[in-house]
User: Which sequence fits this backbone?
């Protein structure tokens, strides 16, 4: 589960420990192999490795196996804008029964997506390591952060992934001067485009849910809320059957909008250990429900566990734009979706502080944090829930 690729300081003070002379305590020396791992998988690939380092090898039970294609519902944004009730029903069903869907006719120029992916490839594959390292940081709220794996400080097994985190501090003030110049212009255009799609989808989702009284207020909070882009690089892997690009997780946001190249890798969970590969139509973007929207909808919409598989032939590049309310905002079920009869409250209030506290004491993979916020209710009092929401209701293709 991720919003900031969090590295949590579990000390009580949250400060760097000091030694007698007042200087920060030096970090222990790393072996050359450990230092290579810390610099990321692009650096490992450049070093010429032919076998997967042990830090990346998953236990047999967690390794990727056989999959089938997923058939995602399609939401036509042009028809949604025109007020087509069938498209609102499609969006509602997609969020309720699937958790993942693809959006077509979204109005974003194809050039914006192409420029973003090209800029990402330049950053990861053309920029020298010394330049990329300038953006490495252990500070989780850094506006720009270059890193590797999923949650590097806490991952027992590392993920075959490097990333560039770009925090959008104000969607109305782009491009951010802190962003690497190699991606700045393209990322600014892409961030603005994603924010527009997010705003429209959230407005439609609130309509479908029947959230009326606070609709305008909630959309204003979306406009002033958090947006973060995770630019991901999954290089070709020497032994892809032994590892993953990202482990199973759900997103600690309202909605995630995913742009990716033509290399497949995203997989959604169907439960019982079954996974399906996501392939979007040409020109479509993939959207998924996050933990915040599951809570806001009181469990009507589903935040679905997903992961990324790597391959041994081609690198994969993707850009996930994660959207939610402001980080300090408390997330609760909408009042219109809770009553004393057949819609009991199913989630406790939550905020970023609770999320970080949880990650400091638990592994935090899959949807364990979201599970920790659930309120046990009598099965007879829940009328519409099919299951615990971990798996995707998408259909396997024949």
Assistant:
């Amino acid at each position: 589960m991720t919003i900031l690729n969090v590295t949590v300081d579990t000390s009580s003070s949250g400060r760097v420990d000091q030694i007698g002379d007042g200087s920060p305590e030096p970090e222990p020396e790393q072996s050359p192999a450990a230092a290579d791992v810390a610099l990321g998988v692009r650096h490992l690939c450049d070093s010429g490795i032919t076998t997967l380092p042990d830090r990346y090898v998953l236990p047999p039970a967690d390794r990727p196996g056989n999959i089938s294609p997923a058939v995602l519902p399609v939401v036509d944004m042009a028809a949604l804008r025109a007020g087509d009730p069938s498209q609102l029903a499609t969006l509602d069903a997609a969020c309720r029964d699937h958790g993942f869907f693809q959006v077509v006719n979204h109005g974003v120029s194809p050039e914006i997506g192409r420029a973003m992916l090209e800029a990402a490839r330049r950053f990861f594959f053309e920029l020298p390591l010394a330049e990329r390292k300038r953006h490495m940081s252990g500070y989780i709220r850094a506006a720009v952060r270059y890193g590797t794996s999923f949650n590097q400080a806490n991952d027992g097994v590392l993920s075959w992934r490097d990333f560039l985190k770009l925090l959008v501090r104000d969607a109305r003030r782009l491009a951010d001067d802190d962003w690497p110049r190699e991606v700045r212009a393209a990322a600014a255009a892409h961030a603005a485009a994603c924010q527009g799609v997010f705003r429209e989808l959230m407005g439609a989702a609130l309509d479908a849910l029947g959230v009326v009284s606070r609709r305008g207020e909630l959309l204003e909070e979306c406009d002033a809320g958090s947006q973060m882009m995770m630019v991901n690089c999954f290089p070709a892997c020497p032994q892809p059957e032994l590892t993953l690009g990202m482990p199973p997780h759900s997103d600690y946001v309202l909605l995630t909008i995913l742009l990716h190249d033509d290399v497949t890798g995203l997989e959604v969970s169907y439960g019982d250990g079954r996974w399906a590969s996501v392939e979007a139509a040409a020109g479509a973007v993939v959207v998924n429900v996050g933990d915040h929207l599951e809570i806001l909808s009181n469990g009507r919409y589903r935040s679905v566990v997903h992961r990324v598989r790597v391959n041994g032939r081609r690198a994969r590049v993707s850009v996930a734009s994660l959207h939610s309310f402001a980080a300090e905002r408390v997330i609760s079920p909408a009042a219109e979706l809770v009553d004393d009869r057949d819609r009991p409250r199913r989630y406790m209030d939550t905020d970023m502080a609770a999320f970080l506290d949880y990650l400091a004491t638990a592994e935090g993979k899959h949807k364990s944090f979201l599970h920790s916020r659930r309120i046990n209710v009598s099965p007879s009092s829940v009328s519409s829930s099919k299951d615990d929401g971990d798996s995707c209701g998408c259909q396997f293709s024949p």
Remarks:
- Residues 1-32, 380-389, 394-398 have pLDDT under 50 and may be disordered.
- The first helix runs from residue 32 to 38.
- The chain has eleven helices and 14 strands.
